[in-house]
Amino acid sequence: MSDAAPMVLVSRVSQTFRRADGQKVRAVDDVSVQIPEGQFVCLLGPSGCGKTTLLQMVAGLLAPTQGEIRVAGQCVRGPAPERGMVFQKDSVFPWMRVIDNVEFGLKCRGVAKPERQAIARRYLAMVGLAAVERAWPRELSGGMLKRVAIATVFANGAAVLLLDEPFGALDYVTKRQLHDVLLTLWGAGASGGRRTVLFVTHDVDEALLLADRILVVHSGRIVDDMAIPAPRPRNSDSLLLPAMVANKHRLLAHLGLEVAPAVPVLAQ
Amino acid sequence: MMRRERWLSLGVLLLMAALWQGLSMLFRAEAVPGEPMVPGWQVLATRTLLSMADYWPGGFGVPGVVSGAARSYAAAGLAIVGNSLDTIVRLYTGLLLGGMLGSGLGLLVSWSRWTRRMVQGPLQFLRMLPLLAMVPLFQLWFGIDFIGKIMFVAYGVGVIFFAGVVNAVGNVPQIYIDNGLTLGASRLRLYRSVILPAIFPELRASVLLSLGTGWAAVLGAEYLGAQSGLGYIIVYSEQFGYLDRMMLMALLFILYASLSYAAFDALARRLLAWTPQTARGIVIE
Ligand SMILES: Nc1ncnc2c1ncn2[C@@H]1O[C@H](COP(=O)(O)OP(=O)(O)OP(=O)(O)O)[C@@H](O)[C@H]1O
Ligand SMILES: [Mg+2]
User: Is residue A265 part of a domain?
Assistant: First the structure.
């Protein structure tokens, strides 16, 4: 793949749902975006604006009503392990113990038992769940389940990570620890390169701390595309940089929390 | 708590037995002279039990009544064991065959949404069809010996499993399938590691239902053409008004049904250790 070709190419994609009451919902409305390999992109926007829908289409779980999505040059036709997804809803298999869940993707790829067990243990330790590897999912809290899902997807080592509010249910401390885990994983892609990440969040600070680029979504459209060039590693102090403060004001304005001076709206 | 419940159900059982005894003393009517309509326990435990020797053809050093020997408890015991085994082997061969064919077919049909929709109509029709109405048909198709009976049981059970599996697969939450697919599961792996375990809780109801239906089917088949088995003894007894023997058979059914239920329950508990506590409580207890 040449450097110029984007890792994820979304061209004029729309998704229309017909609800049970017959009403039509245009969840994603003529969205186009190019994401280069190794970029960490955050999707930010109010509830119901189409973030999950967009992510599901990139994952291949949902066919676009219109338009086309390409990942690594290939047209997306269905789900594949190169595109790992942490779902917004609980997705951990309740009939497998925690460690078997984390091993599942590796098992599908035919990794031998001792090796995949070692990998699973490593990721379970990273998300702070080493102690519960033999537990049933029903014995875990909501935040712990989320961490199992994260460890499962991370252990599977996809080139593109699609993360739908992965840390939404977690406390502040765990969240900050997992940011570090995620950033480490992001930097440890195949052949030393970076993985490509699409990260959905409602948390403005989280987006600013993690992202290279923030896409603001509103009513199924991308209404702003912001580069976040602050140097890494970032910490709470990074948020105090003048450029970051400006970005934060701009984001808050998009969310309707502040009246900002002339927010530049991206031409569709 | 569990212990108290056990004692309670044991008490109820004893009460029912006592009630039966009371009834037998109250209603002294006889079906044919010497054969009480409501046989009490003293009859069941002695004369009825001994009469089972009539169904022993002889063997294992215990001569049969047909060859001139007197009735003995040894022959009676052997007759009960032998005839029970006949019925149980027919039942479980049929159950196994029907269970495997029914669920296999159900999984196959669940492969795509189209095939699932296609069978939905005919399936309802098959479930409506009264099972026992089909006994003569199966006898003509498969004969009245072993094959005919197990095919009949397999049919009755197979329909239940087929319907159960098709429904259960339709109820598997999409998120688990999506999760499996994005982690790289093949179709086969998805069936083995996601769909099968996901449908098992719902399928447990089908298994219990099929145990009941299986008994009904094997007895139905034995009523109409068998030379051995519990169903055969019931039909034979009816012709002579031996109500006590029929009662004894009923007691045997209760015993066998409870045993198989307990065995399956223990197995299901182990296989379903992962399910949330509440769901387990309501369905099993
Ligand atoms: N399967 C569906 N059928 C009908 N409508 C749907 C379906 N999935 C999503 N929608 C609608 O599409 C719109 C976008 O939903 P989506 O789940 O993508 O929002 P979201 O941005 O992820 O919201 P949140 O932040 O609350 O998760 C909503 O109006 C929702 O009602
Ligand atoms: Mg969402």
Answer: no
